[in-house]
Amino acid sequence: xxxxxxxKNDRRLSLIFLFAGTLFISASLMFILQPLFxxxxxxxxxxxxxxxNTCMVFxxxxxxxxxxYAHTVSTRLNPHRQIQLHAAVILVSFLALPLAxxxxxxxxxxxNPTFWLLWTLFLAIGLPFFVVxxxxxxxxxxxxxxxxHTSHDPYYLYAASNTGSLMALxxxxxxxxxxxxxxxxxxxxGFGYIFLSLLIAAxxxxxxxxxxxxxxxxxDNLEPERLSLRIQLHWLALAFVxxxxxxxxxxxxxxxxxxxxxxxxxxxxxxxxxxxxxxSKWNDKIHxxxxxxxxxxxxxxxxxxxxxxxxxxxxxxxxxxxxxxxFAVMVCHGELAKxxxxxxxxxxxxxxxxxxGMLGGMFNTFVAPFIFNGIYEYPLMIVxxxxxxxxxxxxxxxxxxxxxxxxxxxxxxxxxxxxTVKGLLQYFDWIVISxxxxxxxxxxxxxxxxxxxxxxGSIIFLAQGLHSLSSHTLYQGRTFFGVLAVRESVLNNxxxxxxxxxxxxxxxxxxxxxxxxxxxxxxxxTYYSRPGPMGQLFKEYDxxxxxxxxxxxxxxxxxxxxxxxxxxxxxxxxxxxLVVDIASNPLYFSYLNQCGLSATIRIGDARLSLAKEADHxxxxxxxxxxxxxxxxTHLLTKEAIELYFKKLKxxxxxxxxxxxxxxxxxxxxxxxxxQLKLAALIEEFEPAQAMPLIVATDWVVMANKPETLQPxxxxxxxxxxxxxxxxxxxxxxxxxxNIVSIWK
Length: 744
Known about the structure:
This protein is α/β, with parallel strands linked by helices. It has helices at residues 3-8, 13-41, 50-76, 79-93, 114-143, 157-179, 182-209, 213-222, 229-256, 261-278, 283-307, 314-338, 346-371, 377-387, 396-419, 421-424, 428-438, 449-470, 533-540, 577-584, 591-595, 606-611, 638-647, 665-675, 710-713, and strands spanning 473-479, 482-492, 498-506, 509-515, 549-553, 569-574, 600-603, 618-623, 648-657, 679-685, 697-703, 721-722. An 8-stranded mixed sheet has the order 7-6-5-8-9-11-10-12.
């Protein structure tokens, strides 16, 4: 038996543990660093969900560069040269330790901050993240050359990498975030990175000692290329669609609850879990099951997620989206795993996968916001995932024609209905029921991917168009901070007659409304109504607020400005310039033009803007900053509260809007009030009787002294109560927040 043959049959488990362990640690560090730095950067950009999506583009781009580096060095350099070069790169990356943001980091306020965010990430973590990104393909390539008996198929090591990613992601919100502050997390990550460098050195030593490595590398380089362009483009598509879907789903989840790592991690965990499964030995059995289940689950998903979402509670709506995402990525990634090439092309395979992932992120972050005024890339990628399904190929041109023409005919009928839908809106419920029934027809095309994609896309398109028309959307726009829509609706007024009014939506949450008749257009509505907590506050302090200086964080439709008195000075803080444009346009809302012409408007993040104001400036500071239904967490920390009171006069009042469907924000404020020795009252307001556009809303007021809040505590207008005490969570700080502890 030759020495070469002995090397090929090396069965040492220690080699598997070493290489798999290196991949495990590398992936763990990568997926701890992602939410860690996303959380560090959130406060600088108003807590927008787009921060995470932009961070994901950066991570995917550096991942691609790392895979490109691994592909280049492994195909052009012999193993010894690879080791020498990689050692130099790792040593240079130590210059970035300990991890920290560049000094004097301030985002732009007059332009889209996307490129600033990418540059800041590059300066802060670019080098170490690049090294971590090279590990998966490079270590697997090295393993394929060390002569182990499984070296011919090292793809199973990718499961170790993704298992590390999964464990890191799940440990972050439930273990690291609740127990360790950001400063300690950065320090521990640095130690982990040094440990990873030692493991890479051990793998390099094994490769250096291998007598077969050089011969294998030379043989691989001499082998002619046999990969077709078609198969490589197929890899690209199968990786691109799940990447885009990942960011689309993340945007949906984090917009309506909170932009925090816990919620970012849900879709990313599902995404990585799919890789663990499909690159394991079980994929041959699991993949056909996923292909079979996907179109079956598609029926309730399309019916309730797009055609009639209001019929489900939010948690069920969320489960539907996550399960649909799971089936889509399992089918796409399952096909990708089936098509994996010989180890000769291992680094090229991973390079194309990473390139597709980067393209998916760039499409969602840079392309979609400029060509779509809504989150349309998400349903578009759902349709694309169906197109990529494996299926029985039709025989002949007639079969292809049948596949496409039936859905196209249905789409044509739908377009005719869509064009005349204003007359059909009275039959809205029947149209919705018909569309839900039509989704059952998708099962007929489950083995015809093209037809299935066309039909599903037609149904989703018609449903979204129908909802847009039925909601009478006057304007819809999209910025870095989300999707804003102005809609015209109808209410029954005091004389029980129909009356049109305008409302402002951010994502799925109403952010204000205004009645249009001249005698009613100055009346603050929804969360800011005169019978509600804000109306009570201004009414109770009516005799002493003639010369108040007031700060309002969060503009909305501008309803609060109709509480302005001639002698008062108001400053309005708003992070999104589009909100200012909408509130200033009398075609949509006239609160600002009628009531707020004397107010000063400042664009930018509230904390950064307030920090520049003079101390003890305000008599009243109102915190009403929301991204859809979520309050940016950096506005709720102990340091934020201290900043607000630094800017308030000694007898000033801080008012917090905490209405939220999912989070018990009063717990956070109660603990701050207790620790900072502040007086605090809460009113969870419910309208006493049905009044147009007067809604239930929760507000908290805080002051340095109880006497300041005395008018509210004894008020007969409302029901202000002392804040309840909580002892089951740590106070939130800039270094520590934990969303799990306030989940309703």
